[in-house]
Amino acid sequence: MFIHLGQDTVVRSKDVIGIFDMDNTTVSKNSRDFLAKAEKRGEVINVSYELPKSFIITSENKKNRVYISQISSSTLQKRSDFILKIDL
């Protein structure tokens, strides 16, 4: 199954490692450092030019990606929970 992250971007639900709220997690220096390093490595994909509300970490074929999305982490979590219920 797939999770829609915004605009025309979808990812396979099994590739999602984590969904994080931008406001709560970027308070931590570790989170800011992680995002900065991912940006330098070219792993960050911005799926919207609107105010970012969440970031999603995925791993596909041993390649990590960080998606920046305007969709809230709670909405994305609900979508992933819905997919998990369907897969059962």
Tell me about the largest β-sheet: 4 strands, mixed
Q: Which structural class do the helices and strands define?
A: alpha+beta
Task: Tell me the distance between the termini.
Answer: 12 Å
Q: How many structural domains are formed by the residues?
A: 1
Strand order of the largest sheet: 3-5-6-4
Task: Output the radius of gyration.
Answer: 13 Å
The overall average pLDDT, rounded, is 89
Structure explained in plain terms:
The structure is a single chain. The protein has one domain. 35% of the residues lie in helices and 36% in strands. It has helices at 22-25, 29-40, 73-87, and strands at residues 2-6, 9-12, 16-21, 44-46, 54-60, 63-69. The strands form two sheets. A four-stranded mixed sheet has the order 3-5-6-4. Strands 1-2 form a two-stranded antiparallel ribbon. A hairpin with a 2-residue loop joins strand 5 and strand 6. 18% of the residues are buried.
